[in-house]
Amino acid sequence: MKEKETKTLSEKKSTAIARKEYLCAIADKIQSLVTNEKFIPSDIMVLVQRRNPFAGPLVKELKSRGIDVAGNDRIILPEFPAIRDLLNLIRFCIDPSDDFALCCTLKSPFYRLNERNIFDICSYRKELAKNTLNDAKTVTVFDVLQKNNPDIFAKLSEIIQWSKTLAPYSFFMRVLNTNNNRENMIAALGTQIIDPLEEFLTICLAYERTQPGTLKHFIKWFITGGSEIKRDMDSSSGVRIVTVHGSKGLEAPIVFLIDTITTPKSEKVFMIESDIHNTNRENLKAWLWAPQKNTSEKLDIAADIVMNKKIAEYYRLLYVAMTRARDRLYIYGFTANKNSPEIAWYTQLTKILSEISDDKTIRIVNDQ
């Protein structure tokens, strides 16, 4: 491995460790509030700009401490490995020659084959092709299973038959309730998959009751629009983890603002006023694209206009976030290189609040 690649991997590992420690510190603080100050989990709301990379790992940290978590304001189901495993199972049932979907299914908690097992199965196709006088390209992984893994082949063959007659909810319930598949999935992927799994089954049931169609129709519908769940966080009983956009109208006694370093990104494509007019003599909009940095003055002006609008919206969201707190607001900041951007929420708040802190209502602590 090249020296540069080694350094990059090392930096990524170091960042992941630092992020985990950061989220552990936040989870410890929340645990202290619940245990020592007698707040209940629903008194606490955690705000992030985006769900990644903080929301999921923080849910895991809180649950490991026995703290009830309402979860995220939105769940994008295909982001969860358990849901991807179920979708790959559908793809295989629809087309048993889909080797990729089958290999993903074989690696899932249902069958637990490892990379070496998959490699051996795929390699054996050539030998099987010779014995059957077929081209290796026409011999599928499923054909190899029939020869080398008859038990798995028999189970998958049965599932294929179910897929031909059962609607989505009935199909997945039978799959999950057979051979301890549900228990195996939870044991392999953790209890955090229970909520998205239940949400997925609820969607399957609603689809089965309201819409006709096979599993093929279902997966197309699900991927193109039915895979995102919006939750009513105002009625949740645990710690709420919400995006700032999704927090409008919500309030909590205690708010944690933990994603305060992320800043607006510059664009390569800008909309500008053109010299072309429509029939009403109004300037038409035009797109300006610049693949490189050494560009024209007009591009610089357009870039500044776009960035200024983004920054204005960025600080408007900060106002929204800070006003969600009724009694207390905890502001945290995480950056891997220890230097936060000048316009970042954390940088600006630290600067402003340090000037007005009276050690009573505002307390600034820097643990770095």
What would you say this structure looks like, in words?
The protein has 368 residues and is of the alpha/beta class. The protein folds into 2 domains: 11-73 and 236-368, Rossmann fold (3-Layer(aba) Sandwich); 79-230, PCRA, domain 4, CATH 1.10.486.10. Helices cover 52% and strands 13% of the residues. The protein contains 13 helices and 9 strands. It has helices spanning 3-36, 55-64, 81-94, 99-107, 115-131, 141-148, 150-165, 168-176, 181-189, 194-210, 215-226, 297-322, 345-356, and strands at 44-48, 69-72, 74-76, 228-230, 239-243, 252-257, 269-277, 283-289, 325-331. The chain has a 5-stranded parallel β-sheet, with helices on one face. A two-stranded antiparallel sheet has the order 3-4. A two-stranded antiparallel ribbon has the order 7-8. A hairpin with a 5-residue loop joins strand 7 and strand 8. The longest helix is centred in the N-terminal third of the chain and has 34 residues, at 3-36. 24% of the residues are buried. The model has no long low-confidence stretch (mean pLDDT 82).
Question: How much β-strand is present in the residues?
Answer: 5-15%
Quickly count the helices.
Answer: 13
Tell me the number of strands. Answer: 9
Helix content: 40-55%
Estimated radius of gyration: 26 Å
CATH superfamily (homologous) name of the largest domain: P-loop containing nucleotide triphosphate hydrolases
**Biggest beta-sheet profile:** 5 strands, parallel
- Give, in order, the helices and strands: HEHEEHHHHHHHHHEEEEEHEH
Strand order of the largest sheet: 2-5-1-6-9
Q: What kind of oligomer do you see? A: single chain
- The fold-level CATH name of the largest domain is Rossmann fold
Query: N-to-C terminal Cα separation, in Å?
Result: 33 Å
Which spans have pLDDT < 50 for at least 5 consecutive residues? none
Structural class: alpha/beta
